[in-house]
Amino acid sequence: MKLDRIEAPASVRALPGLAVPVGPATVAAPCEDTIFLRGVRVEALIGVYEHERHAPQPLVIDLELGLRHARCCASDDLRDAVDYGQVLAAVRRLAQVNRAVLLEAFAQNVADALFAGFELSSVAISVSKPAIFDAADSVGVTIRRRRAAADA
Asked: Do 90 and 114 touch, CB atoms closer than 8 A?
């Protein structure tokens, strides 16, 4: 197994009173960091039944976005990061123009758009419709996708 060596920045190594020594860290490759957005609320025309497609319905979306060891962890620079606001805007745009009938298809469209717009290695997308059934708080789906090796 090949290992990558990551050196802690000098500013961290020089912190006074640091209880544990900070030096070169060994991290097994490949690493993956996860960004999450939970409880994203949107409205969309979606549903199998005719009555569901007459007015937008509330959806709640949870996103987990995987990326190879993020450069922003070392640089502390937004230009090296995935901008959460841009992710949120992309999901909202998709909901506004949605033509998918199934939550599964909508979730796949979200995954495809996020892979196209951001340098992600994986996504987990959960989409739920609240208060559809009296006996359940919500119904929904979670999909998990990895970027194809050729695209990485």
From this structure: yes
